[in-house]
Specification:
The structure holds 3 protein chains of 3 kinds.
Chain A lengths: L2 H17 L1 H4 L8 H24 L7 H17 L4 H23 L4 H20 L3 H4 L5 E2 L20 E2 L2 E2 L3 E6 L2 E6 H21 L2 H11 L1 H6 L4 H26 L2 E2 L6 H14 L6 H18 L2 H7 L5 H12 L6 H15 L3 H13 L21
Antiparallel strand pairs in A: 1-6, 2-3, 4-5
Chain B lengths: L2 E12 L2 E12 L3 E5 L6 H9 L6 E6 L2 E2 L5 H6 L2 E4 L11 H14 L14 H13 L15 H13 L5 E5 L7 H18 L2 E5 L3 H7 L2 E6 L2 E6 L1 H5 L2 H9 L4
Parallel strand pairs in B: 3-8, 3-9, 6-7, 7-8
Antiparallel strand pairs in B: 1-2, 1-4, 4-5, 9-10
Helix pairs in contact in B: 3-4, 3-5, 4-5
Chain C lengths: L1 H31 L6 H19 L2 E10 L5 E7 H6 L1 H8 L1 H23 L9 H23 L15 E3 H4 L8 E3 H23 L1 H11 L1 H6 L4 H23 L9 H16 L4 H18 L2 H6 L3 H16 L14
Classes of the chains: A mainly alpha, B alpha/beta, C mainly alpha.
Protein name (chain B): Branched-chain amino acid transport system ATP-binding protein
GO molecular function, one term (chain B): ATP hydrolysis activity
Organism (chain B): Albimonas donghaensis
């Protein structure tokens, strides 16, 4: 099967899986709008981050700043222009693009750990300023919200309560419910907007991966020295990758605000930047599907694990004698609820240590165990990420 | 014959060490010009001045009528100068074919092009060109291998294909046979000869192996202590007293 | 003039902490070539050594009084810390001096933590890319801080300085200026002196012992030293322990200045990395100098006079300095050529 056919197939399967999300995920207790939207949005964020980190190997520790900037930009559009999400999302991509252009231009003068620290420094500056002197723009610790009295020059005056974000009149929060086999299925407008944009993002990233530009980015990761002696200027390539991934982050931030019109500085904190790195690595940096998978898993476990509390645990282990139940619950209690981050940290360490290629690599390893293709097929190792150009 | 590379009174100091001392050199188009000399004579420093890795303190380096001083490596390559390194520099994470497609694209599209929407699979022309270059170095059968897994000798041949696919006007080779067995050395000599006759590429070779030098070179410059002591045809170099002095009786021994 | 002196003094305590953390980071980076994002967590662990000791010492023994009654007629509960009940006055003294006393626990504990970390995790990452090292130590930092959070909760836990050292020192008066112009908390002065002593000890150790000499040689050229038949790895492991101890001690003594909570380490880590970069990757004196420099700069930036001209400067000054230094002097103030320039 050549690359083009398999890519088309991958895109179709991906789209179906995403669009059927509310049905597929309902049995796992993840079929409600809020979580589904997060899957899609953080999927977009990770897809964008992967274009920079997965392809060029430049590890940015400040990408959350672009997400945060995107959120602020979107909320301002809601306040000033209209509750329609189209201008808000477009504006958030543009603003994040400009930010990443400036920050990328400066940070990319250095590479390796210096680059990581420069991006980290810029993100921390954005974060600290958002909390302090930029309060007129960011509303400081409270976070930026929409109010009834905002101008919204394109919309008719709202009454009663602050209006909901919408797409030409279709409210993001509107949800159509039905039940299937005893489960409630929730089809939410906002999720489908995010889902379509996720599919679009996935398609864009697929095109980039398969293009000469994508190959150049991989070359940047592989050997910059050879690149410049081959007549290629590495700087514009890395900057382009940085800005593209910054715009994806802005898009994700804009969508977060579009689903729930508020923006806070905590979205820009460096631990939030660490989270997107984690998603990408967990799924598999440099692979197409990995980042989306990683984002989904982390958001899923975050939701499930942090919802579990001591009484749930006691309930689960009720069959054990009391003393043992208490002991088991106490130990497991460290890892769930408030302790979810502990689990996250452990997963992270395990993945980096034993499976640096992420889950996609893990799946391929298992796949290879079962296939008899023991003969060295150079493509099989990276079939997901980089099939050879079509024969 | 016209000069393609002209070096005039180039000086380069590293702290107290005078690495290049008033170097003058003219390379004629279509020839193979070897630069030889004892260790530390300044051969690599000179080569680095040609490709933009180092900037001479004084003097001029002119390639096909344009100055190379202050130009970045990628600009110099775009002007038509390719370089083979002493230890092969390739894209180890990519396949052999991709390694050769990249320079081919660089030659066609220039130093930067945001062709992110166009599938690589439609670049049939670039692909054919890369495959021909691989066939030239007898590596067509390995086109889909990850290049990082190649042997050192194969990496060097791959690097040569990467340079040749760009159809450079000037090819710089930094010890192309270093560490090779005699059989491989001879194969490399044949390869370099063949490329020379087919494509009229000017070559500058730095080499320690006198067998290689005398098999290939049309002209030889002998560098000692940062200075060109002799420049002549190979047959005249062999018996030259100054050269023997530099190699055998020089201050470095 | 007075104001400037005061700001310099104010910057010293933060600067001391930065310097000690950055020294450890640089030691680890220079010897093992590892970028340790968990180093801030070591600082935090040190701080929680002090918290633990304090908790242990103030565990209370509850006795029902035979004679006294509460207002409700039940016997009054008499609460005395075990330490006092057992050791009398010595116990009281121990509680009062719990922070410095904690050093006794922190020394072996942090050393052990360092060794376990290096042998158990870090050593598998010597040959891996720096990105992997950053990521795995980042994961470890999360794990460590979450463990602390599980045991000690999320709120800051104040630690008192010993009574005699918790007052203010009137510097101005001591140097013949007007009384009350330059008043400085005594403990911060203690912290600075402590930091100076620790840093001095580390430098002497590296300078004047054979062990230190080998380590320095290893930092300069690991391969050659290895070729000489010296077991450099074992020494580097011990250096990791030493770096952990320095960070831990910095944490212990910092607790009266800033009440420790579980993310103390993360807060200091980012800043310490900036310090290391500004000082120059791999340069020990650079790390120390940059630590103090940035601490002092930070305290100047938070002066009202400065903030009026440049609003928000106190929030970003350190990062701004880092950006400027990285762009103009990529090797940092005192960095060596060729370190991490790939």
């Amino acid at each position: 099967m050549n690359t083009k056919t398999s890519d088309t197939l991958l895109l179709i399967v991906f789209s179906i899986a995403v669009l059927a999300g509310p049905v597929i995920l309902a049995p796992f207790g993840a079929g409600y709008p809020d979580l589904l939207q997060k899957f899609a949005i953080y999927g977009i964020f990770a897809i964008g981050f992967n274009i920079l980190f997965g392809l060029t190997g430049y590890l940015s520790f400040g990408h959350a700043a672009f997400l945060g900037v995107g959120s602020y930009a979107a909320v301002w559009m809601f306040k000033l222009l209209s509750m329609n999400i189209i201008p808000a999302v477009i504006f958030s991509v543009i603003v994040a693009g400009l930010f990443s252009l400036v920050i990328g231009f400066i940070s990319l003068r250095r590479s390796g750990i210096y680059f990581s620290i420069l991006t980290l420094a810029f993100a921390q500056m954005c974060y600290n300023l958002a909390y302090s002197v930029l309060t007129p723009i960011t509303n400081g610790e409270t976070g930026l919200q929409i109010t009834l009295s905002d101008p919204r020059i394109l919309d008719a005056a709202a009454e009663g309560q602050a209006p909901a974000s919408n797409l030409f009149g279709l409210d993001m929060i509107s949800t159509w419910e039905t039940s299937l086999a005893g489960m409630t299925l929730q089809f939410n407008m906002g999720f489908y907007v995010c889902a379509l944009i996720l599919i679009l993002s996935f398609w864009i990233s697929m095109r980039l991966f398969r293009s000469p530009f994508g190959m150049m980015l991989k070359a940047v990761k592989s050997n910059q020295n050879r690149m410049s002696y081959t007549g290629l200027d590495t700087k514009p390539y890395t900057l382009a990758a940085f800005v593209i991934s910054g715009m994806f982050a802005g898009l994700a931030g804009g969508l977060l605000a579009a689903m729930d019109p508020l923006a806070g500085a905590e979205r820009m904190q460096w631990t939030a930047s660490g989270e997107v790195v984690l998603m990408t690595i967990l799924g598999g940096a440099g692979t197409l599907l990995g980042p989306v998978l990683g984002a989904g898993l982390i958001k899923y476990f975050e939701n499930i694990f942090s919802a579990i509390n001591d009484s749930t645990l006691h309930g689960v282990f009720a069959f054990l004698p009391d003393g043992l139940n208490n002991a088991v619950s106490a130990v497991l209690g460290l890892f769930v609820g408030e302790g979810w981050h502990l689990t996250l940290g452990l997963i992270f360490m395990l993945i980096v240590t034993f499976l640096p290629g992420g889950l996609i690599e893990g799946a391929q390893r298992i796949g290879r165990l079962f296939t008899s293709r023991s003969k060295a097929d150079p493509q099989s190792g990276e079939a997901q990420s980089r099939p050879a150009p079509a024969e | 014959m016209t000069p393609i590379l002209e070096v005039q009174s180039v000086n380069k100091r590293f702290g107290g060490l005078k690495a290049l001392d008033d170097v003058n050199l003219t390379v004629m188009e279509g020839t193979v010009h070897a630069i030889i000399g004892p260790n530390g004579a300044g051969k690599s420093t000179l080569l680095n001045c040609f490709v933009g890795r180092l900037v001479p303190d004084t003097g001029t380096v002119t390639f096909a009528g344009q100055s190379l001083i202050g130009k970045k490596p990628h600009e110099i390559n775009q002007a038509g100068v390719s370089r083979v390194f002493q230890t092969p520099e390739i894209f180890e994470d990519l396949t052999v074919l991709e390694n050769v497609m990249i320079p081919a694209l660089a030659q066609r599209d220039g130093a930067f092009r945001l062709h992110g929407w166009h599938p690589l699979s439609r670049e049939a022309e670039i692909r054919d060109k890369a495959e021909r270059a691989l066939a030239d170095v007898a590596m067509a059968d390995r086109r889909n291998m990850p290049s990082g897994s190649l042997s050192r000798g194969d990496k060097r041949r791959l690097e040569m294909a990467m340079c040749l696919v760009q159809e450079p006007r000037l090819l710089l080779l930094d010890e192309p046979t270093a560490g090779m067995a005699r059989a491989d050395t001879n194969a490399t000599i044949d390869l370099l000869k063949r490329i020379g006759s087919e494509r009229n590429i000017t070559k500058v070779v730095i080499e320690h192996d006198m067998h290689v030098v005398f098999s290939l070179a049309d002209r030889i410059s002998v560098l000692a202590q940062g200075h060109v002591i002799v420049e002549d045809a190979p047959e005249n170099i062999k018996g030259n007293a100054k050269v023997q002095e530099a190699y055998l009786g020089g201050a470095h021994l | 003039m007075d104001a400037i002196l005061l700001q310099i003094l104010n910057g010293l305590d933060k600067g001391s902490a930065y310097a000690m953390i950055a020294l450890g980071l640089t030691l680890i980076f220079g010897t093992l070539g590892v970028v340790n994002f968990a180093h801030g967590a070591l600082f935090m662990l040190g701080a929680f050594c002090a918290v633990t000791i304090n908790k242990l010492l103030t565990l209370q023994k509850i006795v029902l009084s035979d004679t006294e009654k509460t207002a409700w007629g039940t016997p009054l509960e008499l609460r005395t810390p075990y330490a006092e009940a057992w050791f009398g006055d010595a116990g009281t003294w121990l509680i009062d001096w719990s922070v410095p006393v904690s050093i006794a626990l922190a020394l072996p504990f942090m050393f052990l933590v360092g060794l376990v970390m290096e042998r158990g995790l870090i050593r598998h990452f010597y040959k891996r890319p720096h990105a992997d090292q950053i990521l795995v130590t980042f994961g470890l930092a999360i794990v460590l801080q979450e463990i602390i959070k599980a045991f000690f909760g999320a709120n800051p836990i104040p630690q008192p300085a010993p009574d005699t050292l918790s007052g203010m020192a009137d510097f101005g008066a001591a140097f013949g200026m007007e009384a009350g112009v330059i008043v400085y908390p005594l403990w911060r002065l203690v912290y600075f002196l402590f930091a100076a002593a620790v840093l001095g000890a580390v430098f002497c150790f590296l300078r004047f012992t054979t062990f230190g000499m080998v380590v320095r040689a290893g930092m300069a050229d690991r391969e050659t030293v290895g070729l000489l038949g010296i077991n450099i790895d074992k020494r580097f492991t011990l250096m990791f322990g030493l770096a952990a101890v320095v960070a831990g001690l910095a944490g212990v003594m910092y607790t009266p200045i800033l009440s420790p909570d579980y993310h103390l380490g993360m807060d200091f880590l980012v800043l310490s990395f900036v310090v290391v970069v500004v000082g120059g990757m791999g340069s020990l004196p650079g790390a120390v100098a940059a630590g103090f420099l940035l601490g002092i700069l930070q305290s100047f930036a938070s002066m009202n006079e400065v903030k009026q001209i440049l609003p928000g400067i106190d929030q970003i000054i350190i990062y701004l300095v880092a950006v400027v230094i990285l762009l103009t002097r990529p090797r940092g103030l005192l960095g060596r050529k060729g370190v991490m320039e790939a």
